[in-house]
Design brief:
The protein contains 6 helices and 2 strands, in the order H-H-H-E-E-H-H-H. It is an all-alpha fold. It folds into 2 domains: 7-45; 48-165, no CATH class. It has a two-stranded antiparallel sheet with strand order 1-2. A hairpin with an 8-residue loop joins strand 1 (89-90) and strand 2. The radius of gyration is 23 Å and the shape is extended. The termini are far apart.
């Protein structure tokens, strides 16, 4: 391939800018790879089994562990779900029993649960069966996904609690 030489000062400026952008992209890509390796090592150093759950990769496991820390700080799965913003809020009035979307909680954890729910609703498995059952009950796709996220919060809470109980004691 022949090397293209700029014919004007503007073309030369564009070429130099393109070189700078390419160098930045290479640096960022290298940083991302290094960060992924650090996360992989950090998750491997724990005794977590989170990655056995369909839809959880190293990055999501690291994000969960980093944001949650000690799972025993949540007295129940309901408290955990409230903290992740997946527990619906009561919005009842009189005899009408309704719930509304919880926009509170840790939005980063809610995003992780959303990603897992999308993966599980898309791929065959128990998550897909649950999602489909909610659709068959007449729920919208968003409502069914919200219900799956709430169920996943329970699953993750129990798994992390079990992992922590089976973890070897740390030296003080």
């Amino acid at each position: 391939m022949q090397r293209i030489k700029p014919t004007t000062a503007t073309d030369a400026c564009r070429r130099d800018l393109a070189k700078d952008v390419l160098a930045d992209l290479r640096r960022i890509d290298s940083n991302i790879k290094a960060n992924e390796a650090q996360m992989r090592d950090a998750v491997a150093a724990t005794t977590t089994t989170l990655q056995e759950v369909h839809g959880i990769n190293t990055v999501l496991a690291a994000k969960l562990l980093g944001h949650i820390g000690n799972i025993t700080r949540f007295p129940s799965a309901d408290h955990f779900a409230g903290s992740t913003g997946t527990a619906p809020l009561a919005a009842s009035s009189g005899e009408n029993t309704r719930h509304r979307l919880n926009t509170g909680g840790n939005r980063q954890l809610n995003s992780v649960l959303h990603t897992i729910a999308v993966c599980q609703a898309r791929d065959p498995g128990p998550g897909r069966v649950y999602y489909q059952r909610k659709l068959d009950e007449g729920k919208t796709r968003a409502e069914a996904r919200r219900a799956l996220k709430r169920r996943l919060a329970n699953v993750l809470y129990r798994r992390m609690l079990r992992d922590q109980q089976h973890a070897p004691p740390t030296a003080a």
